[in-house]
Amino acid sequence: MSIVNNISSNMILGELHKNTKKKDKASAQLALGEKIRNAGDDASGLAISEKMRVRIRALGQDEANVKNGASMLRTAEGAIQSQINLLRTIKEKVIDAHNDTNTDTDRMIIQKEISQYYDEINDIAAETTFNKKLLLLGNTVQEVVKSWEVLDYAVLVEDSDSLDLIPNVLGDLDEEPGPFDTFGTAASTTEKYAYDGYNVNRISATTIPGHDTAATTTTSQSTFHGGTANTANVKELDLSSYNVSALDNTAFRVRYKYSSSSSTYADYVLTTDSSKKFSSAATINISGMDKSQIASAIASRVNSNLSGYYTASASGEKVTFTTKDTGTATNNTNYYNVTGITKTGGTSTTGYDRDAAPATGLGNFKLGDGTQGKNAVYDTIDVYDPTTDMTTPTSVLVTPATYATITKDISSVPAGSGITLTAGSYTAYLVFVDGTSAPQRDSTKGQYYYTVGKNCPAGSFSFGNSSYGGMKVEFSNGSMKLTSLVAGTSGDNYGATETVSASSKSSTTYSSATALADATLVTEATNGETAHWDWDLADYKVSDVSKANELIEKLVGKAFLHSAYNYGDEYYNYDYPASYGSYNYEFIDTGKAPSVDSIAKLRNSTKVDLNTVRESVASGQTVAEAFANLITSKVGSVLSEVIKNGSDEITGVKIKATTPGTAGNSQAIIFKEPSLRDYTIDFATALAGKDIPTTLDGKGIRFYCATDKSQWVNVQFVNGISPDDDDRPASGTETLDIKTFVVDVADVTDVESLLKTIYEGDGNRNPQGLENWLTSTYKHFFHVAADYDEGTLTIYDNRLFNVKGGNYASRYTANSFGAKIADGVMDNVIQSKRNVYVNDLVIHHTDRSSANIHVRIPQTTMDHIFGYKVGTYSLEDYSVLTSEKREKLLGTDGPPKVEGTLDKGLQYLIDANTLIGAQIVHMEFAEANIITDQESTMSAESVIRDADMAKSSLELATAQILSQAGQTMLSQSNQNSSNVLSLLQ
Q1: pLDDT-derived band of residue 985, with 50, 70 and 90 as boundaries?
Q2: Are residues 115 and 74 in the same domain?
Q3: Are 588 and 610 in contact (CB under 8 A)?
Q4: Which domain does 473 fall in, by range?
């Protein structure tokens, strides 16, 4: 018997198992909603899905982070806006305080309010938090900017002295650290005072092109020549037509002194009676003389009285008058003449008819018998004048003088009594009468004769004047007070004596005189030839600019002076009148501006601009013509004229003596060569082949005033100035007069552009040049000149006189070595570094740098808002208590224009809020991007892992049907097998 397998049942059973599994899987997918339940369902799909699920959860947290970050930034934004509002209020208060209708007390009150606002701004910065996190205090250095430290002493700026522009001539000078060179040198033949620097040396005319070879020339001068003698004016008084008796009581006048406005004369009367008097005339006694003797007497008297003006001689009955002065000026009969005049007789009365007044009973008295005057008490101190840098010993009043005074009771003096008042050279008479009448003057009894009521009410009168001394006399109901008009003890001796003396008029009887005949002209005076000095320009009769430049180069920097106007010391110290200097004709060349050749070196000289010659020659004139016309236009036609040849060509210019005749031969032309108190720096040589901005960066020079060792100027070079750098504070202290001029050389390409940048500025980095700054801002005596072609810069002192020597040197506090210069910047303002902080906060940080979000919130404490370094400045430096500090807060229009600290602070806060606003927008966009990313990732992950419910439901239904069918078929198959088995029983 054998048992065989039921193959069909096994097949059906296998299908049944498959369908059952399909049903279970579909049922599980529907239950979980996922088509991937484990790695067995889809290993790679499960891995991708899991990573996506991590990403989705991270994006959800990212969204929460950026929302919190935006909220935090809005908190900071609101706090900074509050600070902006406070700073706006502060600016309003500062503008109010800058109005001069406010007093200093008002400004102190305003400052108290402003200080509270400062504190509130700092409090907001220190206390603004988000979830206990400080927002407006930085934790990270965002940038380092240049800051400045102000010291109360000067130090050498590190590495600023390595240019080697200034040679090491001397070491430390005037207690200042060197090494130095000086503007002047030790005394020599070319320098009048040691280390003064300013010099005016005479030079020989032989160094001048076209000098007069016919003149006698020395180093001091070149004399005029060619003057010939003048002749005198001669007049003759002829007595021959008179009888001797007819000459008695005749008068004549001798005019003897020339003046542009008046003449001086002497009157004489011939008389035989010496007892006679003639009004305003001297007498010549001719008693017993014949006409020849009378002529001799006249000549003798004139020679005796007027020997300085006339030589008188007698020849027979004639008198000849020859003027001592010569030339045509003596032909003017208004000033040199002898004429007959008449004298009127009559009686002349002098004096006054004054009655005597008896004593008053007051006695003789002086003002010093009452309250004595006291002289003023003075002390001598040195007074400094910044306009000239001059210190002058000056008397200063300590105690003012007082006036001597005395009071007298006049109520009981006898009526009609009087006193004589004396004050200095003045005398007056005072007579008392009954009643209350005011002082009355009676001019018939004297120039100062007064009557006054004894009970005159309050009032006063005075006589004399303060120049000679006088008294003020006051009355008040029976009281008389006398006070000196001159303060001090000199008034003590003024006073009064008892009584008024009587006086009477006196008279003088004058005789009359008839006019003597006028003197007649014998010889009219003539002028001789005027002496001269000839400037020979024959070599320059060409119209050639190069020839003009040749002449200009030989003359520029020199000067000439007519000896008639040489008023003394050629150095023209400070106290000489300005008009004296105008007679110095100084050659300059404005065509070479701004070089030293274009600068005048003599005080108040007449400038002779040789560039005029260059321009005239370029227009077609010859050099000789242009130069001669220039000289005559400056010197004037009286003292100069052009010289022409036979062809009417200008060949020179003649300088003439001030007076005709041989006297002009003693006059001369003086040539000079002045030199400034200056120092020239050769940049062309020092910077040859070097990169100028790099070489000069941080370097500089300094030069010192000749009369103040604590007064100097720094010139400091920098290679670029960042707009973020703090504003440089002013150099100097109360005791150190330091000024620093900063030159940005970042745009300099060569020595010429460097010199232009230094001298005139470049309109960009350097809006103001050194010359303009020295003139308009520093306002001292330093100036600069630049020669762009030669590559040199000249620093000079425009005080065109000696400060270390001469008659007036004691008025100047001159340094031992005068003006000096050195490499390096000596300053009390030192550059340092200031950290600018931000609060760097992480908002969103992932493993991908492109998806990281950091925010930066600027620190908004007052030091960051105003941009100063704590410890160097404080908020006390930003007050309204001085005009300078208010202008610092508000700014100035310039030049140069300076932005106010408040505006810069407001801009800092506005920029901070702008940055925060931009970061808030960043957060909003980031949030939108995160949401988009999250939604996209969720969608993709759902496609990979989530079940398709319709498909899974269909698969479940299919599996259930197939499973039921399989069970039915298996049952049938098993039934068939059972029937077979039953056959075996």
Answers
A1: very low
A2: yes
A3: yes
A4: 365-374+401-497
